[in-house]
Amino acid sequence: MRYDSAATGGAKSSRPGPKETRKRRPVPGDLTSAGRRVAGNRAEERERRLKTQRTRARLRIAAVALAVVLVVAGLVSLYRSDLFAVRRVDVVGAARLTAEEVRSLAAIPADATLLRLPLAAIEQRLERNAWVSSAEVARDFPDGVRIRITERSPVAIVDAGGSALWQVDRSGVWLAPYSAEASAGLVVIRDVEGLDPVPGRQSRSETLINAIEIAGSLDEGLRPVVKTIVAPSIDRTALITSGDVEVVVGSSDEIARKQEVARKILEQQAGKVVYINVRTVERPTWRGIENTP
């Protein structure tokens, strides 16, 4: 029996025949020749950009290095040149030392320029002098140097034993041997043991430092009448007035109050008192001529 296809509804199978070909989906990475050319061009372009960037970076580094070399060479040349040569040296603050003495102590090299000026070395040379407390050296463009010094001032004359009389400043620095002109009006400190004066060196004697502090603290009432300070020890430190009155003050602590009390006793007992003790300022004692043994 034959069956007509129409009778069976004429249905056709959906499966492809053996000779039918299916469409192939593109697989990633599977490029056509045109695609490969595009990808290759992009890679080459990227490589060219990277190469250009590297070249520019190298050029920038080379330019900076060259600029640094040129700047350094210029600075070295400027440093070695005679530009800004020192032609004047101004001195400020000198009183006991003359300006010429200060210039001599500074010893600025004859071929110095402001760029080659050894500021720290000059200041150190100046401060080696006993009279110079501090020194400041500055460049004054285009051709000058300014030296500003702070001098020490003598506050007393110290009898260092034998015939040695020395000027000292308030901090106990030995300045110079006694000079009548420079030492006029200064009180003399004596009877201090174990002194070894060296110009520019600070004394280590606590007894002397105590006496110097007292000398530097004398007020207007006592300064004109105190001629000598005797200091065999701190506790026995005493002022000797022009009227030969001994005023024992001991330590420099409360020296202003001690002076005030001593001055009142001197005024009240004028011509009668020969000894005053104000070491304990709250309980001062004094002795008159009639009590002298």
Q: Can you give a write-up of this model?
A:
There is one protein chain. The chain has 293 residues and is α/β, with parallel strands linked by helices. The protein folds into 2 domains: 57-151, membrane protein fhac (Ubiquitin-like (UB roll)), CATH 3.10.20.310; 154-291, Rossmann fold (3-Layer(aba) Sandwich). Helix content is 31%, strand content 21%. The protein has helices spanning 33-80, 99-106, 119-127, 206-216, 255-268; strands at 88-92, 132-140, 144-151, 154-159, 165-169, 174-177, 187-190, 226-230, 238-241, 246-248, 273-277, 285-288. The strands form 2 sheets. Strands 6-5-4-7-8-9-10-11-12 form a 9-stranded mixed beta sheet, with helices on one face. A 3-stranded mixed beta sheet has the order 1-3-2, with helices on one face. The chain is elongated. The model is unreliable at 1-12 (pLDDT under 50).
